[in-house]
Amino acid sequence: MYLDTVKEKIRERVDPVYLLEWLGVTDYRVGHNMIRCACPIHRGRGKNNFSFDTSTGIWTCFSRRCGEDVGLPRDIFLLVMLVKGVSFSTALAILKSQVGLSDEECQFDKKDHDHVKIRKWLRKQRLLDEPDVAVIDESTLDHLDSRPHQYLLNRGFSPEIIKLFDVRYASSGDMQGRIVIPVRDDCGQLVGLSGRLITDDQAQMKKLGKWKHMFNFSAGSVLFGLDKAKPYVATSGRMVLVEGPFDVMKAFQHGLCNVCATLGVNILPNQVDLVIQNTSEVYLAYDTDEAGQKGARRIYEKLAGFTDVRFMMLPDGRDVADTDEYEIWDIYSNPLTPLEYKIKRGEIKS
Fold first, then answer.
1. d(C-alpha 149, C-alpha 212), whole Å
2. pTM of the complete model beyond 0.85
3. Which of 16, 45, 51, 124 has its CA at 20 to 30 Å from residue 237's CA atom?
4. Burial of 65: CB neighbours in 10 Å, binned 0-12, 13-18, 19+
5. CATH for the 1-129 domain, from 3.40.50.300, 3.30.300.20, 1.20.81.30, 3.90.580.10
């Protein structure tokens, strides 16, 4: 199927008012074939400085002329890309979900390079506070060693799971000395790399950082593993959120495949959107250290208004990547309510 056909299907079904509200517009005026409001891209204050033509699907920002020099049509796809700072593939997935199209109805054969234009434009407009880095695409992986690294084997990762997540090793370049894990968006497009430094030198670890991330967009635009976890999330009716890629990999190895990582101990707005688009029930399984537990509480507060949130009680000093198959399934089968979790951790008395 051609991409234009897929886009037209979505345009025909999208509700412009709902879309603008979802993008954060709260004050708008609906007229004949036209919606007027403040610009959701640069968050302008003028209530009539942005127009959306409902007959053509084309929008215009009259104050800053947002998007006019991007080089892409000012349609609903570009609007989502600019407001959310995501790639076309992610914007397509968001809109597909909103209008109720299936994956089969949205298949097309075209690589997505528009994210490069979007990133440059957002930075130029000072709407993206990120350093300029090389764009990551599939060719980036060609320079990395795909053989299973002994570090991963020593930590109990099977060759099969290493291959499934396409984990590699960098002997040179920006990720030198690191296990490199490709990060893909929920459509499977490569959008970043996560690298874990392999060294016993604690001084070097402190200087260079245990983890290094490189993204075409903010890490907060994706949930690691969602491209693989989607069908399992749909089948189980819930999503397990963890901190890092190794946690996801070990869970998959143990057969628990509805697991995604926030790539840190926080969850950002785009990630919240991805969660609520895919499930109404979430289990949190974050590291037992202080940072992990504070992060779990923050994430609970951000998700509680949208989903039913439970906690998985990991053993002290352990994370999901350190569990065996029996442990992870036992913990998964006995989730705790927020109150039960606080009692178990001794934060409140029963």
1. 18
2. no
3. 16
4. exposed
5. 3.90.580.10
Domain ranges (residues) in the chain? 1-129, 133-218, 219-349
- Between CA 132 and CA 350 the distance in angstroms is 52
What is the DSSP secondary structure assignment for residue 135, as one 8-state letter?
A: P
Query: Each residue of 103-143: pLDDT tens digit?
Result: 665 555 444 445 555 556 655 555 544 444 446 778 889 88
User: Both tokens of residue 223?
Assistant: 């949930």
Q: What is the CATH number of domain 219-349?
A: 3.40.1360.10
> 117 φ, ψ to 5°?
-65, -40
pLDDT digits (tens, 9 = 90+) for 144-194: 999 989 999 999 999 999 999 999 999 988 899 999 999 998 888 888 899
Terminal CA-CA length for the chain: 59
Q: Give the rounded percent of residues in the chain with a pLDDT score beyond 90.
A: 44
Q: Which CATH number fits domain 133-218: 1.10.150.120, 3.20.20.140, 3.90.980.10, 3.30.420.40?
A: 3.90.980.10
Q: How confident is the model over 258-313, as pLDDT tens digits?
A: 999 999 888 887 788 889 989 999 999 998 888 888 999 999 999 988 899 999 99
Q: Which two tokens stand for residue 292?
A: 């992990």
Please write down the long-range contacts of 15-19, taking CB distance under 8 Å and 24 or more positions apart: 15/98, 16/52, 16/54, 16/57, 16/76, 18/98, 19/76, 19/79, 19/80, 19/95, 19/98
